[in-house]
Fold ABC-type xenobiotic transporter.
Amino acid sequence: MTTDLAIETRGLVKVFGGHRAVDGIDLAVPAGTVYGVLGPNGAGKTTAVKMLATLLRPDGGEARVFGKDVVRDADAVRGRVSLTGQYASVDEDLTGTENLVLLARLLGHGKAAARARAGRMLEAFGLTGAAGKQVKQYSGGMRRRVDIAASILNTPDLLFLDEPTTGLDPRSRNQVWDIVRAVVAQGTTVLLTTQYLDEADQLASRIAVIDHGKVIAEGTKGELKASVGAGSVHLRLRDPEHRPEAERLLTRALDAVVQLDPDPVALTAAVTARGEQGAAEGAARALGELARAGITVDTFSLGQPTLDEVFLALTDKPLDVTKEGATA
Ligand SMILES: Nc1ncnc2c1ncn2[C@@H]1O[C@H](COP(=O)(O)OP(=O)(O)O)[C@@H](O)[C@H]1O
Ligand SMILES: [Mg+2]
């Protein structure tokens, strides 16, 4: 197995009472990157992470972290990873400072060093003002930040972030995203699980989409989107009277349904990839036809499909993030 992989799994399986929560997962996570594991509730994300973090024993297949087997070399793996997420190590009754000092002491730092480290982390995470408050008084966003601070007290080589922003407001999510970027900039590999497509899109360089314990798609963001094979063009015409003709030409050129936007000069259409031809070529051809017909296009944009559309195309069902625990 290659050494520049932070994680490598083959046919990883976990069975709970006959139910295959993780059903033969193959992963290759390059070191030094954020790798996104995207899937709905109950997909098997936490179970997979727990096996990789040596907290659960696999029932089949194998998994290596920096080349070390998670079962045979569990101690070596534990020394290099850290986990934060749906269950956290911080004590609600202790203050932010007390929690971080305690954890730093457990990690072997001396008293003064532990206090200094805790202080620096709280400052870096914007928690200095709340340092003396009990964690149970923290907001959701503060709580998540102290969780992450606790998990990176000793800079791990691999950090598991299990749904780090589930339930957070947009501002807190952005703060967590900034932290993730900073952690990766320090050289840590991050395995991030998420139900949020935009989160994987923002942070991850590669993404595995999982559903019912299986990887249903894997690749870079671009590859994933390309495999779904579509983009959408949006254009605005100079003259609203040209719109019916533009609609007719676009429908033929793109072989797609053209939507008429409320704005009387605007049209939107999906670009279907045809064979080797990419979305950009299809869009360019359509623009050429409009020009030949004497229709002036004022603005034009070609967008890649969102990850929401990717998931819908891959699973035939939309990602429903409102059904917390419904699939469990
Ligand atoms: N300790 C457990 N005992 C029994 N079933 C479990 C246990 N942990 C998870 N499961 C089941 O395994 C499946 C995957 O769960 P999980 O890994 O938590 O999914 P996710 O993190 O993607 O939401 C779910 O059907 C869940 O109910
Ligand atoms: Mg989970």
